[in-house]
From TrEMBL:
Domain DAHP synthase ferredoxin-like: 1-68
Gene it is expressed from: aroF
Pfam families: DAHP_snth_FXD (PF18152), DAHP_synth_1 (PF00793)
EC number(s) stated in the UniProt entry for this protein: 2.5.1.54
Domain of life: Bacteria
Keywords on record: Transferase
Protein name in UniProt: 3-deoxy-7-phosphoheptulonate synthase
PANTHER family on file: CARBOXYSOME FORMATION PROTEIN, PHOSPHO-2-DEHYDRO-3-DEOXYHEPTONATE ALDOLASE
Protein's organism: Anaeromassilibacillus senegalensis
UniProt domain DAHP synthetase I/KDSA: residue ranges: 83-335
InterPro entries: Aldolase_TIM, Class-I_DAHP_synthase, DAHP1/KDSA, DAHP_snth_FXD, DAHP_syn_2
A GO term for molecular function: 3-deoxy-7-phosphoheptulonate synthase activity
NCBIfam families linked to this entry: DAHP_synth_Bsub (TIGR01361), PRK08673.1 (NF006421), PRK12595.1 (NF009239)
Lineage: Bacteria, Bacillati, Bacillota, Clostridia, Eubacteriales
């Protein structure tokens, strides 16, 4: 249930009202104070609450029940966009286009540092790189793991770019915190690893949550809800393509998911055109489409020598190719911002 209070409602009155709701109906009340109004989100069994009685209070503007099973991720509970701000100052969801770039797998210190320096020069504000790699085949390269995190730290020290890397196990959380990972990525295969999501809900670190290969938009939002229910509101949603009947591309980018997620949720939305297509030359047009659809950021695979990459070379851009793509998408974002101003 959502209760919107009239503007300028005294803080004392809000507290008295929320306390009475908590005590009388045994519900949890989330209070969101916006620029125009105060919104109360009631979590729990609200069936016994008399809507007419609530609406009759002279300080209540409107009240309605929420049918969606996700509450904390729901825009109705939080009308303004959530902006993820890192201690280093980088932001996702503030109206600008965040560029997250780097190799699928960290391979050597020279490789990750070279790529980090090149993508930063092209406009990237975050460095992605896989240390722990979930692979379909047990015989494929599984990543450098803890050593990979150390190499990412070295690249961060050289460039100042915050680290975005994927976690695969609850047991890795202390290591990720110790090594200073800035944004923890939950991959598509772990989107419904609910024990992992609950554990990530207990830490104070942004989580980039990728949509599963065959999951619905509501299922993605429910996975975000698991993290947020634990107390961590710093969730970034990622559309990375879903599995369909089409075999030409690795996956099918669901571009409609971007405006739908922006309508249903207040959380930032980024798009991964690399995994969506699996084809390097398709990354640019899909990235442009994502920007036009309203994405808050892009996560793109970049390798200094894709032909010899230990994983996902076919979809990786060279630094020169990324430079061109970054230039085009940033200009497109700027043009769209002026058009909508």
């Amino acid at each position: 249930m959502i209760i919107v209070l009239k503007p300028n409602c005294p803080e004392e009155q809000v507290k008295k009202f929320t306390d009475s709701l908590t005590q009388e109906y045994n519900v949890k009340v989330n209070t969101w104070v916006g620029t125009q109004s105060t919104v109360l989100g009631l979590l729990g069994d609200t069936t016994s609450i008399d809507i007419d009685y609530i609406a009759a209070q002279d300080f209540v503007e409107s009240v309605k029940r929420v049918q969606e099973p996700y509450k904390k991720a729901n825009r109705k509970f939080h009308p303004d966009n959530t902006v993820i701000t890192l201690p280093t100052g980088q932001k996702i969801g503030d109206g600008n286009l965040a560029l997250i770039a780097g190799p699928c797998s960290v391979e050597t210190e020279a490789q990750i540092c070279e790529v980090a320096e090149r993508v930063k020069a092209s406009g990237a504000t975050f460095l992605r790189g896989g240390a722990f790699k979930p692979r379909t085949s047990p015989y494929s390269f599984q990543g450098l793991q803890a050593e990979g995190l150390e190499l990412l730290k070295k690249a961060k020290a050289k460039t100042g770019l915050p680290i975005v890397t994927e976690i695969m196990s609850i047991g890795h959380i202390p290591l990720f915190e110790e090594e200073g990972v800035d944004i923890i990525q939950v991959g598509a295969r772990n989107m419904q690893n609910f024990e992992l999501l609950k554990a990530l809900g207990k830490i104070n670190k942004p989580i980039l949550l990728k949509r599963g290969l065959s999951n619905t938009i509501e299922e993605l939002l429910m996975s975000a809800e698991y993290i947020m229910a634990g107390g961590n509101d710093q969730v970034i949603l990622c559309e990375r393509g879903i599995r369909t009947y089409e075999t030409y591309t690795r996956n099918t980018l669901d571009i409609s998911a971007v405006p739908i997620l922006k309508k249903l949720s207040h959380l930032p939305v980024v798009v991964d055109p690399s995994h969506a297509s699996g084809i390097a030359w398709l990354v640019e047009p899909l990235a442009m489409a994502a920007v036009a659809a309203g994405a808050d950021g892009l996560i793109i695979e970049v390798h200094n020598n894709p032909a010899k990459a230990l994983s996902d070379g076919a979809q990786s851009l060279t630094p020169d190719q990324f430079d061109r793509v970054a230039h085009h998408v940033l200009r497109t974002k700027d043009a769209l911002s002026k058009l909508n101003a």
